[in-house]
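We treat protein structure as text, and this decision shapes the records that our systems exchange. Below, we set out a record of this kind in full and without editing:

***
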Amino acid sequence: PVEPPADGIASRIASDPTPGREWPAPLPRSQLDGVRAWLERPALLLADDMGLGKTVQALAALRVLVRQGDVSRALVVAPASVCGQWRRELHHWAPELTGMVVQGNARDRAWQWRAPANVTIVGYDTLRVDFTPNPGSPPRAVLWDVVVLDEAQRIKNRGIELSREVKQLRRRRSWALTGTPLENELDDLASIMEFVDHDEAAAPRYAPGPDLLARHRQVQLRRRKSDVLAELPPKQVSHLDVSLTGAQGVAYRRAEQEGVYQLRAMGRELRIEHVLELIMRLKQLCNVDPVSGQSAKLADIEQRLDTLTTEGHRALIFSQFIDDRFGVAAICRRLERFAPLAYTGELDQAQRQELIRRFANDERHRVLVLSLRAGGLGLNLQQASYVFHFDRWWNPAIEHQAEDRAHRMGQQHPVTVFTYTCADTIEQRIQEILDQKQALFDAVVDDVSLDLSSSLTADELRALVGL
């Protein structure tokens, strides 16, 4: 890990950064160290655990650098779902800095890119649209003093267009924020490092090996939550094995037998995509049998929520599906008596903010059901002290990010996480394989992530369904 610079510049951070303006809250020592590292280094990979305030550290560093005259224009590239949070935190932590979120139609975006803001904020997808081969296109026309990548694992694949484009942005400083710089393999880290370790003379090209790991140790600053937040209540993870019985069990076993039979019958026409389709169908049946409506997981959740809500607790329920047969909508329908709120990618930013406000302030809504992709990033949900993973993404880091919406600074209660696995099903077999895979990555980065389709070999995928 990067060693924080000497304490000689501590006063520049901890004291009033601008005459007449103070920090809205004291910066903890860990955050102070992160800001120092950014003030002294043009390249930094901040890989703190989720919930340690990476956004705050970046904005505090930007505020000081603007005050010193070292930065006038910064670009923040983030998932669209958290661009609003960046704007709010900018106003809170650096109110004298001007900010602009690039969004809307092409005409609006054109003047937003040109606006003389200290901090320009743009979503990854919008950046892709506005980044063209023309060097004069808005993202490329500016020599940015700083380019900040939030959730930098989005560029882990160097072969995708987004990854190539981000690395072409002209910049003096390269900052990356991610708790999971390595998700599947060392190539993930190599791609992120190619952005961070930016040299105007030549773009670096990394391959897995000693050189990558040596440079990684020089530019990564990582702090674990357990090390720096002694006051944070503990997080307890409980793995719940449930059995599929009755109509749900019959439906699952029939689908598995028929699915395997069909795959075998395909012979040489069989493709991995066909295997993945069966795996997905079986995972959905582990959630709910759409014909009978039976669900071992929902039956268990209902019993637990009866007790938790009576005691005044709030709960988050995450699912990778959003539909009304197997996902968020189905869960909300079954748990209607708890007045659950549904948070999915189908909501616009205003709707998302209003929904989070209602969950935080309205005593009637003690259950929030979220799609894993939309709700797993950028939200502060410390009001909840219980988290349920209704189905497994088979990507531990994504799950950790989701549950840490509740287990973060400001949480007053111990956080209990329940993860469901249906016994003697595809869920259990995948979990066993991923448990073995996990150990391969622990030596490089503490919090790793595995993606089903890219982390398992073709032979392993076929073995999951008995081929």
In short: The radius of gyration is 23 Å.
